[in-house]
């Protein structure tokens, strides 16, 4: 996976802002993924977003879409998205899903930094490499793994308290045994539950968050 190199201090500071947005999502029982859009020239935070699929009843309201819409709402009248986002970096706590990765291409982003991978639905190298596709919008560079453990911990907390928005059949006992080989997730939460969390609580009607 190609990697863009950003300053360590600013990169970590911006990801902490994204994690703070994810915490806000967790507080209202949304899948805890957060995002910030930062202007490269001066580090100004252009917009923030967090998952909002439950409150809106819209499975597309991922953190990236929320942040993009917020940025455009505050942009100068007549501003072109690609001109705005070409000069920005998007920081998100979980790898953008295929849908969001495609949206980032068409929005004109050149750089994206994310925390943990989205193994099942990730569009930046895990499931597909949408960010490097030869056609359709602008390709972008990615950097991964910034505060990945913190991002995963938020997903574990979401499922440790049970996802109240998941279909009943998908809910599990808190003390269910861990899936084999799932060292990256809490012993009380199966790896499949974390992936289901990223995909919107296990509902087939929702695509991967991020």
UniProtKB/TrEMBL annotation:
InterPro entries: APOBEC/CMP_deaminase_Zn-bd, CMP_dCMP_dom, Cytidine_deaminase-like. The keyword Metal-binding applies. The keyword Ligase does not apply. Keywords: Hydrolase, Metal-binding, Zinc. Residues 9-135 form the CMP/dCMP-type deaminase domain. Coiled coil: none annotated. One of its GO terms (molecular function) is tRNA-specific adenosine-34 deaminase activity. Residues 169-192 are annotated as: Disordered. It comes from the Eukaryota. One of its GO terms (biological process) is tRNA wobble adenosine to inosine editing. This is CMP/dCMP-type deaminase domain-containing protein. It comes from Diacronema lutheri (Unicellular marine alga).
């Amino acid at each position: 996976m190609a990697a863009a190199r950003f300053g360590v201090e600013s990169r970590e500071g911006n990801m902490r802002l994204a994690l703070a947005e994810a915490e806000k999502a967790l507080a209202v029982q949304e899948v805890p993924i957060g995002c910030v859009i930062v202007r490269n020239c001066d580090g100004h935070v252009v917009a923030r977003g967090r998952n909002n699929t439950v409150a809106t009843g819209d499975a597309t309201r991922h953190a990236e879409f929320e942040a993009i819409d917020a940025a455009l709402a505050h942009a100068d009248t007549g501003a072109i998205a690609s001109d705005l986002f070409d000069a920005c970096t998007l920081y998100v706590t979980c790898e953008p899903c295929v849908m969001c990765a495609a949206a980032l291409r068409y929005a004109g982003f050149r750089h994206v930094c994310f925390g943990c991978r989205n193994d099942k639905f990730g569009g930046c190298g895990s499931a597909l490499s949408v960010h490097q596709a030869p056609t359709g919008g602008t390709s972008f560079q990615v950097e991964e793994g910034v505060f990945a453990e913190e991002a995963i911990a938020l997903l574990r907390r979401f499922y440790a308290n049970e996802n109240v928005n998941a279909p009943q059949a998908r809910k599990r006992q808190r003390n269910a045994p861990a899936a084999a080989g799932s060292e990256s997730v809490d012993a009380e939460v199966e790896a499949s539950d974390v992936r289901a969390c990223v995909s919107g609580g296990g509902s087939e009607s929702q695509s991967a968050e991020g």
